[in-house]
Design brief:
The structure holds 2 protein chains of 2 kinds. Chain A is of the alpha+beta class. In chain A, the strands form 2 sheets. In chain A, strands 1-2-6-8-3 form a 5-stranded mixed sheet, sandwiched between helices. In chain A, strands 4, 5, 7, 9 and 10 form a 5-stranded antiparallel sheet that branches. In chain A, helix 2 packs antiparallel against helix 3. Chain A is elongated. Chain B is globular and about 40 Å long. The longest helix of chain B is centred in the middle third of the chain and has 11 residues. By secondary structure, chain B is of the alpha+beta class. Chain B contains 2 helices and 7 strands. In chain B, the strands form 2 sheets. Chain B has a 5-stranded mixed sheet, with helices on one face. Chains A and B meet through strand 5, helix 2, helix 3 and strand 9 of A and helix 1 of B.
Chain lengths: 152, 84
């Protein structure tokens, strides 16, 4: 895989990033806190050790970087059309993500909590369907597999 | 008849199967995304089992297979994504 520098887009309202380093949740939370919002919903996706009887050692993520950033921005914009979004943040890690570490941090700040939960759910569910990022699973028995959607 | 050369990006399982991050596909015009997939499948039969699940992207946006292609377009073959 090609070495990437971190790639990000940050405006007053939207923060999108693809990072090679471990994701930190506090900077995302700090970005999302705003006086116009009463609720912040933050989702963190992490690498899980077990899937049925298969033991995962790590996941490895690859992206079509410029298109992934565009699609993530499109998602943020759509969320802002459908809910009263004050701030929104989508961060995805690339490269190896070991067990119990974060692969994705998605957050949204809205005036009330119902909208925050809904918008956050929409963002992670849709990211998993449309953003050109792929994960490869490395198992304890040495096997590797490109994950097919539906079992992540 | 003229020929265009389309830079085509490969990721994940296709990148592994074909052994390249990028291939150049030469096509007679007029050419569509489907023509590109046909040409690539002929040159790389490993692609055939994935044909039904490949979505095309042209210039960093999803496109249907009947999209017309022109010189300078960047195409990517997008197999089912698995971010998050």
């Amino acid at each position: 895989m090609t070495e990437l520098d971190s790639r990000s887009v940050k405006t007053e309202k939207v923060w999108i990033g693809l990072e090679q380093q471990a994701l930190a949740v506090q900077p995302a939370a700090d970005f999302l806190y705003h006086g116009n919002a009463g609720g912040v919903c933050l989702f963190v996706g992490t690498t899980r050790r077990w899937t049925d009887d298969a033991e995962t050692v790590e996941l490895e993520y690859e992206a079509y970087v410029p298109m992934a950033l565009k699609e993530m921005r499109r998602l943020a914009d759509e969320a802002a059309r459908r809910w009263p979004v004050v701030r929104v943040c989508l961060l995805h890690r690339l490269g190896v993500v070991p067990v119990a570490e974060a692969s994705v941090v998605i957050g949204v700040a809205t005036p009330h909590r119902a909208e925050a939960f809904e918008a956050c759910r929409f963002l992670i569910d849709t990211l998993k369907q449309t953003v050109p990022i792929w994960k490869r699973e490395v198992f304890a028995d040495g096997r590797t597999d490109w994950v097919q959607p539906g079992n992540s | 008849m003229s020929v265009i050369a389309i830079k085509t990006l490969l990721f994940s399982v296709l990148r592994e199967k074909i052994g390249a991050e990028q291939v150049t596909v030469r096509l007679p015009t007029p050419a569509t995304g489907a023509d590109l997939l046909d040409a690539l499948s002929e040159a790389h039969p490993q692609l055939v089992p994935y044909r039904q699940v490949i979505r095309l992207a042209v210039n960093e946006a999803y496109a249907e297979a009947d999209v017309p292609l022109q010189e300078g377009d960047e195409v990517a073959l997008i197999t089912p994504v698995s971010g998050g």
